[in-house]
Each structure stands twice: as C-alpha cells, then as structure tokens.
From TrEMBL:
Residue intervals passing through the bilayer: 32-53, 65-84, 145-162, 174-195
Highest taxon above the source species: Bacteria
Protein name: Uncharacterized protein
Keyword Membrane: yes
Source organism phylogeny: Bacteria, Bacillati, Bacillota, Clostridia, Thermoanaerobacterales
Keyword terms, alphabetized: Membrane, Transmembrane, Transmembrane helix
Length: 220
C-alpha cells in the first residue's frame, strides 16, 4: 500500500509538470499568433501609407517597396508557422502521454481523455469530416488565420498595382521579376505549411499520434 501511494504521488507530480508544460505551450501559441498578426498588419499599413500617400516616390521604388515588404511578411509568416507546428506537436504529444500513461493509472484524472473523446464526437458530426482529418482538430482554427495572413500580401500587391497602374512596369526589370518569383515561392511555402498545420500532411506529425506509442509498446 505504501509503495502504491508513493507511485501515485510520483505520477501526480509528473502529471502536474506535464500540465504546466502543456499550459505554457498553449499560451505560447496564442502569443505567437498575436505577434504575427500584429507584425503583418503593421507592415501592410506601412506599405500602403508609403506608396499611396507619398507622391514623390518613383514607380520603380514603389515596386521595390511592395515586393520587398511582401517577402518580409512571408518570412515572418513562415517562421511563425514553423514555431506554431512545434508548439502544436508538443501539445499533442503531452496530451497523448497523459491519456495513455497517467489517466489510465489514476481513474480520477480524466480531463485529457474526456476532451479527446469529445473531439472525436465533434469530428463524427462534421460535414467535411472526409476532407478534414480528425488528427488536425486540436489545431483547427489556426490554419484559417494563417491562410488569411498568407493571401494578404497577394491582395495588397494586386490592389496597389491596379490602383497605381503599375501592371505595365512589373516586368520592366529583371530585379523586380526576381523579387516576384521569390514572393511566389514563399507564398506557396506559406500555404503548404498552413495546410500542414491544419490537416497534418507531413510525416513528423506521426510522432504526436497514439500510433507511435502503440508501436513502441508492441516492440517491447
């Protein structure tokens, strides 16, 4: 009985530490998204003000401002997405460990198991369940926000080009063409990472799944 109580105490301590780490990662996700949105909106506002309100800027300089600022936005979004994926994978791994190794040992603790089962019920009732994979439901909501951020530079460039009549000047410089190509590459990287965050395309998400634990236990 004494050994059981000691083991129970150790499990509870591990549970408290994991819950604290889980909570910290959840806070970091919100802060990261907040800073990312603020940075993107700040750059977009600066560019719109710089190009639309300054009459002394030449067309070539406007194009340079537009394309370089767009690249900066995409670099910020991509860096943010990579960090968000890390936080999300950590949250999912911790939640999975708590469900499989702690809550099964201590029946009074059921938060992660109850929440996980509730998410499964939500998935069954979703109209798009064949398109949206259940394993992404923990991060659902982040993807659409990053998608909006990813298309903002495209919308901003399109708006300024047509408003300032810059379309005829876009391909007059190899420098501008190069910047446009780099922007296109960064755009597709950003979109890919956004969808990966939402529907878990890449293999590294498997390390956050129950499948890994089951395979590890089976090999012992």
């Amino acid at each position: 009985m004494q050994n059981y109580e000691k083991n129970k105490s150790e499990i509870l301590e591990e549970y408290r530490q994991l819950r604290a780490e889980l909570h910290n990662n959840q806070i970091m996700r919100v802060q990261l998204l907040t800073y990312t949105v603020g940075a993107v909106m700040g750059i977009v506002s600066f560019v719109l003000d710089k190009i639309l309100t300054k009459n002394d800027i030449e067309i070539g300089e406007k194009m340079e401002y537009l394309l370089l600022s767009s690249m900066i936005i995409y670099l910020i979004i991509i860096a943010s997405l990579l960090m968000m994926r890390t936080f999300q994978q950590s949250v999912e791994r911790i939640g999975m460990y708590i469900r499989e190794y702690i809550e099964k040992e201590l029946p009074g603790l059921k938060w992660e198991t109850t929440w996980f089962n509730m998410k499964k019920d939500m998935e069954r009732n979703m109209l798009l369940k064949k398109i949206i994979n259940f394993k992404s439901i923990g991060s659902r909501g982040w993807g659409p926000i990053y998608f909006i951020l990813s298309i903002m530079p495209v919308l901003t460039i399109s708006f300024i080009i047509f408003k300032e009549k810059l379309l005829g000047h876009m391909f007059n410089s190899f420098y501008h063409i190069g910047l446009l190509i780099l922007n296109s590459i960064l755009f597709f990287i950003s979109i890919f990472l956004t969808f990966d965050l939402e529907i878990h395309i890449t293999k590294d998400w498997e390390w956050s799944s129950i499948k890994i634990i089951q395979e590890s236990d089976a090999s012992k």
